[in-house]
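--- STAGE predict ---
source: upstream dedup step, 1 unique chain passed
mode: sequence only
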Amino acid sequence: MSRTVIIGGGISGLAAAYALQKQHADYLLLESSNHLGGKIITGITEGFLIEGGPDSFLTQKRIATDLCRELGLGDQLIGTNHTATPATYVLYKGRLHPMPEGMVLMAPTMILPILRTRLISWPGKLRMGLEIFIPRNKTGSDESLASFVRRRLGQEMLDKIAAPLMAGIHAGDPEQLSLRSTFPMFAEMEKTHRSLVLAMMKRKKAQPAQAPRAPRPSMFTTLSGGLQQLPDAIAEQLDPQRVRLNCPAQSVLAEGNRYRVTLADGSSELADDVIFTTPAYITAALLRQLDPRLAEMLRSIRYVSTATVSLAFRRSDLTCDLNGFGFIVPIAEKRKITACSWSSQKFSHRAPTGTVLMRVFLGGIFAENLAEQDEATLIATARQELREIMGITATPTLTKAYCWKRSNPQYNVGHSALLEQMDRALAQHPGLHLAGAAYRGSGIPDCIQSGTDAAIKTTQRHTS
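--- STAGE serialize ---
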């Protein structure tokens, strides 16, 4: 029986191990830290449920919800609350303005909310309205998100809505992020319908009519007991003899038709296949002797640091309005935070009755140094920002910060071409597989998909 070594115990590595376990394949999962799940980490303290990394995943990509149900977590799946309207605000000139209703990421689906909003000036609204007359990109070449939004919807839409949203999702610079690799659906909309606005309206019209009072399906899904329930549930299904914690790999070298995985303790494992789910720069270090050119490509994928700070308050101590899910912060506001999520408003089961839980985001490509500070400084920065933006002077009853150094891969323009080069390099090493957030999607469903696909490739390789 062929043997697969999986390097990295985040959600991608767990998904790969789980897929191999279901096929009764021989595998070994190596994780350098003392816990599985990577950035998916949930802390429960004094009744508050605090997510250290991601707090939800896209409902539309069904592999994550399907996996939760398969693992017996179906009754734990919940969407965002429907009580708060509008859902999101944008900080503009020091004030919080509601995001126009009907925005799907950076594409409007309704005209009247755009006309009524005070967030966008009338020249900006007129420029957005001209989108239906803008010709499609006929070159077919990759372009930056900023270039795409500026070309189709104008600079104001980019600065006030698209750029801060992209900063929240990818922690990146829209002038560098690849449209094709981050939001290919918008490139496809332009190719098929020419206009984003027309495409969104056609899609909305094609959707089945719902009862007038029926809430729209939630775009995001989480687990009532915290997202860590997912990696924990996967781990419970795995053979504990095939999982090693505190076991970093040092190098991977060819040995005949197999691979020798050397570990930090000096021991080694022989494998027919190796699945790398580690960050690209770590994978590069593991492969630098086997294939220096591939390692160089992997190192070229930039990573940036981010941090989250969770703050709990008594509701009676706050005077601000919390009718929403939080706010995003454009670069032009020159603030030290990129966004704030009102966690207990966004999802149920986050905080005890009479309390509020918020989560502040720092760092990203424009302010990595802010994210890499110690916990006390992160908390002090978050409190100061909320004081100046929301007028919150109350002392939090609970605080917790998480720093994620070099944790967010950047899909810059040309990323898809880079992946094609890497695929050609990998073809020279049968049995080596790349999975995880650095390649074809960084969300939880994407990572699950990539880990699962890598596992399937290993079994197909030995059965075909």
